[in-house]
């Protein structure tokens, strides 16, 4: 992609893993990549050629701020990349989650789409979230599955 294409990385992160992935993408994409955390409000994307969207997935759903953003923005003329972060291990489940996270027209338009791993830091979770994670995901301690190789492949696909 090089430094000539202005890229906006717009993300919704609840506990920080998606934000970390967005930061890693920005570093690999270079000086023309800008980060926009939807918790800080909706960005103006008019000056950007490329938009990468990322959301954490919790109980099969993306962060509400990403839903709100997608309802208000027209990305039809942008070069697009999509990613999610989460803790699913099975490839088919990851793909199903990715397909469910974004509208079909955005998936069809995307230059790259990927599940890029996730992270659970038990101390950042509330009691209810910790209980659910232990019961459903069988996770009892901190775990980091952010996939640097998948991040590299995503950047390579966006560069084609």
The top level CATH class name: Alpha Beta
Q: Given the structure, what is the number of helices?
A: 6
Radius of gyration: 15 Å
**Which CATH-level-2 architecture?**
3-Layer(aba) Sandwich
- SS-based class: alpha/beta
* Count of spatially separate domains: 1
Q: What spatial form do the alpha-carbon principal axes imply?
A: globular
The ordered H/E elements are: EHEEEHEHHEEHEH
Distance between the termini: 7 Å
How confident is the prediction overall: mean pLDDT?
89
**What's the helical proportion of residues?**
25-40%
At CATH level 3, the topology is Rossmann fold
Low-confidence parts lasting 5 or more residues at pLDDT below 50?
none
What is the number of strand segments? Answer: 8
State which percent range the strand residues make up.
Answer: 15-25%
CATH superfamily name? Answer: Flavodoxin domain
How would you sum up the major sheet?
Answer: 6 strands, mixed
Write out key terms for the chains shown.
single chain; 160 residues; alpha/beta; Rossmann fold; 6-stranded mixed beta sheet; two-stranded antiparallel ribbon; 6 helices; 39% helix; 23% strand
Offer a concise description of the structure.
With 160 residues, the protein is of the alpha/beta class. The chain is 39% helix and 23% strand.
How is this structure best described in words?
The structure is a single chain. It contains 6 helices and 8 strands, in the order E-H-E-E-E-H-E-H-H-E-E-H-E-H. The chain has a single domain (7-159), classed as Rossmann fold (3-Layer(aba) Sandwich). The longest helix has 13 residues, at 17-29. 35% of the residues are buried. A hairpin with a 2-residue loop joins strand 3 and strand 4 (61-62). The mean pLDDT is 89. The strands form 2 sheets. Strands 1, 2, 3, 4, 5 and 6 form a 6-stranded mixed sheet that branches. A two-stranded antiparallel ribbon has the order 7-8. Helices cover 39% and strands 23% of the residues. It has 160 residues and is of the alpha/beta class.
